[in-house]
Amino acid sequence: MNLTQDMSKVEVKGFEAKFYDRLMDIITLGYYPFFIRKAIRDLRLKKGYKVLDFGAGTGRNALLMHRYIGDEGEIVGLEIGKEMQEQFRRNCATYPNIKLENLRIDSPLPFKEEFDIVFTSFVLHGFIQKKRDIIIQNAYNALKPHGTFAILDYANFEVDKAPWYVRFPIQKVECPLAQDFIERDTKKMLSSFGFGDFEEHFYFGRYVRLLKAKKCN
User: Is the predicted pLDDT of residue 128 greater than 90, yes or no?
Assistant: First the structure.
């Protein structure tokens, strides 16, 4: 299959965007809030950290990260969806150190060695490989020396050998780009851009992973 970006479902709009957080809670039978809190905790953020959030959504993740970086740190969220931007601004309005930029993560970004962590949650799988490469390069450029690129997304595994309850949403609900992402070697992908010293945290029976990679060069 010839994969194209118009197959992606990563840019959420309309009803789904307006009620995104609530829908995520319902779809996961109430488990999502516990899962995302654990994943954010596994980032091991520290007071004063500066974080760049690729695909910041409603600001839910930014608010969780703020608990760890405190008022001394800073979070810059990048989001292009209008409904998501509205929710982000409303949810984060009382935090002056949480900011939002209307910038595409799959186009060259202006940030140069400014951030301790670049974080993205269930976004990278929704792009064709050419655009994933741009996103990875943007993360590398934005990070300080030895900074961390943290990717919360599907782990790498053979989809056809996974249990039916894993195969079904990936093959029937997700876009084809998701399976392409899952069956590639993400560590190898990152290594080619100068990332290394990998750390992994697995969830949902090891089918979801927080992959942390250090900027080595």
Answer: yes
Q: 108 lies in which domain range?
A: 5-215
Average pLDDT of the chain? 95
Domain CATH number, residue 112:
3.40.50.150
Long-range contact pairs involving 110-113 (C-beta distance under 8 Å, separation at least 24): 111/52, 111/138, 111/141, 111/142, 112/141, 112/142, 113/141, 113/142, 113/143, 113/144, 113/145, 113/147
Q: Which residues of 119-150 are buried (b: 16+ CB within 10 A; e: fewer)?
A: bbbbbbbbbbeebbebbbebbbbbbeeebbbb
How does pLDDT run across 172-200, given as a tens digit for each residue? 989 999 999 999 999 999 999 999 999 99
DSSP code string of 40-70: HHHT---TT-EEEEET-TTSHHHHHHHHHHT
- The structure's pTM equals 0.96
pLDDT at 217 over 80: no
Give the count of domains, the chain. Answer: 1
What stretch of H or E contains 213? Answer: strand 208-215
What was the pLDDT predicted at 17? Answer: 72
Reduce the DSSP state of residue 162 to 3 states and report it. Answer: coil
